[in-house]
Specification:
12 strands; alpha+beta
Length: 174
């Protein structure tokens, strides 16, 4: 006889614990617009002043910096604690030699600032200069962008983006 599988129990070989890292280019306008939209949908009771502040954040033109925001999400709280602790204990000094953005041609910009996660839902913020040798770091023909950060011995982050996918309303957004 077949015994029906109990959906509340993990099946043999199932991945029962994992951690997902959401690595977003927060300085890109479409990403900010999506983040603000989600925050507003998740908080319908938000006051008008906060909504206006969020709208201006979403619509702002790009600053002098590239901001990469990283959120960690874990199914298993013990794994989540490792990641959470890695972000909370990280400092600019501990990350400056192991965190960078890299173009396809190998050129890199190094970390300019780091903000540990606060209760804004956006995660840790890695800040990089937008300019390299008085030129914007990325151009439409840059090919690929890689974000890399070694937070500690256990937590290493790497994300790649196709620069051709970063065009938005005729403008390179990153």
């Amino acid at each position: 006889t077949m015994v029906p599988r109990d959906a509340s129990k993990d099946s043999p070989g199932a991945i029962t614990s994992y951690i997902k890292y959401y690595v977003r280019l927060l300085s890109a306008k479409p990403v900010r617009q999506a983040v603000v939209r989600k925050l507003m949908l998740d908080s319908p009771e938000m006051d008008a002043a906060s909504k206006e502040q969020l709208k201006s954040f979403a619509e702002a033109t790009t600053s002098d910096f590239i901001v990469v925001a990283v959120v960690a999400e874990a199914k298993d709280p013990s794994i989540g604690r490792d990641a959470s602790q890695a972000f909370q204990t990280a400092t600019f000094d501990s990350l400056k030699d192991s965190t960078y953005l890299e173009r396809q041609d190998g050129q890199r910009v190094l970390l300019a600032d780091f903000k540990a996660p606060v209760a804004d839902g956006l995660g840790a913020k890695f800040v990089f200069p937008r300019m390299l040798n008085n030129q914007p770091f990325l151009a439409p023909e840059s090919g690929q962008l890689k974000f890399y950060s070694q937070l500690n011995k256990k937590v290493k982050l790497e994300a790649r983006y196709k620069v051709s996918d970063m065009l938005y309303e005729g403008r390179l957004e990153y």
